[in-house]
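Protein modeling request. Please complete all fields; requests missing the sequence field cannot be processed.
Requester role: graduate student
Desired output: 3D structure, token encoding
Chains: 1
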Amino acid sequence: MEKLRIEGGRTLAGEVAIGGAKNAALPALAATLLTDGEVTLTNVPAVRDVDTTCRLLEQLGVEVSRPAPGVVVTRGQGPTGSEAAYDLVKTMRASFLVLGPLLARTGRARVSLPGGCAIGARPVDRHLAAMEALGAKLELHDGYVEATCDRLCGAEIAFDVPTVGGTENCMMAATLARGSTTLRNSAREPEIVDLAELLITLGAKIEGAGTDTITIEGVDELGGGSHAIIPDRIEAGTYLVAGALLGDDLTLTHCVTEHLQTVVDRVAATGVQIDASADRLTIRRAELHPVDVRTQPYPGFPTDMQAQFMLLMTQAAGSAVIRETVFENRFMHVPELHRMGADITIDGRNAVVRGPTALSSAHVMATDLRASASLVLAGLIAEGETVIDRLYHLDRGYENLEAKLAAVGAHVERFRE
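Delivered output (417 residues):
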């Protein structure tokens, strides 16, 4: 099993290039099920979840090639498959995004209920209700959603809470539905906008992506095209926190500052110096002040940055309260941080962090994707050698993390034990 060894205390300086967004690449890959045309996606991150999605597409009859780093080319061969099996879906929640495209394209879908990080209940009932509103007939059998339709029909769909996956699934399904579909209380994340831009490139008619109301006018078919995946705002936020802890003119390139403005503002409020332009951030560490955060849907503070910001607050002089409102079980990294000396108290959905505390090295275990990132950050500042187990969580969403960190001065290496 692969592990990560980190020798703490090294200053970080130089440039880190931010890669493509995993959470934009996965729905973009799912969208290629909607067409037989050739689709070329660029700036696709080389992460495990992308590999899993490409294998799933191949199982469903899509030709997938990767002719160069960061490039994925797909070509459909007609509706040749409609089942997303458990062996792949269990590892990654985003695989459930094939439901809408399969229904729209083939009129049938058999998709395993999803897995992924164990960070709390993430029910797909909103996805299913939206498919039913579009005219699908649904049944649940043996852990699978079995859906059929003659042709989906446009509908008015109002989500009770914004749902990223539900918005994406419904938007893809509606592109080939008969008539007009309106999605209300839609998710507003940049990844939603990126997916809409891809679909429009392929011939879809979509307006309002990035707002809480999206309208889709169904078309008979989609074609091919090329699309560049947006930079990963969570990867950028993770390196931003690394710079806040250890940065000496650490510069992040190829990012979209607007997409992580809330994170930039919260980190800057701690006293860290951040020089920002549209696509670059330069960070210099400073004495840290405690800052409270509350996770919220975009444009609020992202839940995917909660663990990293919590680690930052262990080094601030005072107490900070972090409130997790999105997932009810996203503090699983706290026991591992306790083992390294962090002073964190959990009270329901609130975490009270008291600092500064000097962290010491330990052998720790990643429990989910973003928790693993917080443990890497902890290892970077801890005294001694930290070893992180269960790297498959980290590999699901961070491309070449150890190489990128090593290039700016960290002592990080992967090894097998």
